[in-house]
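Query structure, 261 tokens:
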């Protein structure tokens, strides 16, 4: 079994498949704490699912593209088994991973998108540089840039490790921290052979988790999670839309879930 925060259908927002309708499997738990993390809701909670149950949920959507993300998906050992199963069933699978966990055992059919943590992430010491030795043509490296200092650090790493020549390298401006136009100017000025990418899903829908879930389970989960954080023991409550009486305590507590309305 695997602990799952959410399974949802949306457009891929980043990397080579940006814009492609995909199913996302978000695994629960992450050993890192990046300052810009936009999926903190995946640190705790979640639901234990058999791989068969996961496969059924994935198959309910008309796409062959699956993105396995987190949290840090590889923090759960059985993630490898799920990646193999998805690949065996001919899904085109990408894996988004923090770069702090060994990727050498990941099924070779899976496209790995490996973060390189910058100083401003707060987790630069966690980079497992040995991972670079196990990446190939269909894998990608991603730097999330928070500042000019981050950019200068990334530039030095890219040049000293010859990353441009070896990999498909991406740079993303940290959401609401680094101006995208400014970052693009730096990349052009330095004639870096990389790609600047914007987070398409955030441009389209803002910073809303699990956008376009086809059922209401995610929203129920999100509402329950927020309530549970505020009032432990109430974590199995459902959402405001279906149980309006929940709105009063949440409004009082300032916790009303915007995604639920
Ligand atoms: S590795 Fe990803 S999920 Fe984990 S804290 Fe960093 S940004 Fe968040």
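Result returned for the query:
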């Amino acid at each position: 079994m695997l602990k799952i925060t959410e399974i949802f259908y949306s457009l891929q927002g980043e990397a080579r498949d940006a814009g492609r309708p995909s199913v996302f499997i978000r695994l629960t738990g992450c050993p890192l704490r990046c300052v810009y993390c936009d999926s903190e809701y995946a640190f705790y909670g979640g639901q234990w699912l058999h791989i068969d149950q996961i496969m059924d949920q994935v198959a309910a959507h008309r796409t062959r593209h699956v993105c396995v993300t987190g949290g840090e998906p590889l923090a759960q050992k059985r993630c490898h088994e799920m990646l193999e199963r998805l690949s065996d069933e001919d899904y085109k699978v990408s894996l988004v991973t923090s770069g702090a966990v060994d990727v050498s055992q990941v099924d070779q059919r899976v496209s790995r998108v490996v973060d390189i943590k910058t100083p401003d992430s707060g987790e630069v010491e966690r980079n497992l540089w040995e991972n670079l030795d196990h990446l190939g043509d269909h894998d990608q490296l991603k730097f999330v840039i928070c500042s000019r200092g981050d950019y200068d650090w990334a530039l030095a790493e890219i040049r000293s490790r010859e990353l441009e020549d070896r990999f498909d390298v991406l740079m993303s401006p940290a959401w609401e921290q680094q101006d995208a136009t400014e970052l693009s100017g730096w990349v052009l000025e330095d004639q870096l052979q990389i790609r600047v990418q914007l987070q398409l899903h955030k441009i389209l829908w803002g910073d809303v988790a699990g956008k376009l879930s086809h059922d209401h389970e995610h929203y129920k989960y999100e509402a329950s999670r927020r309530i549970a954080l505020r009032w432990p023991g109430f974590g199995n409550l459902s959402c405001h839309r279906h149980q309006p009486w929940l709105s009063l305590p949440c409004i009082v507590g300032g916790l009303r879930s915007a995604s639920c309305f």
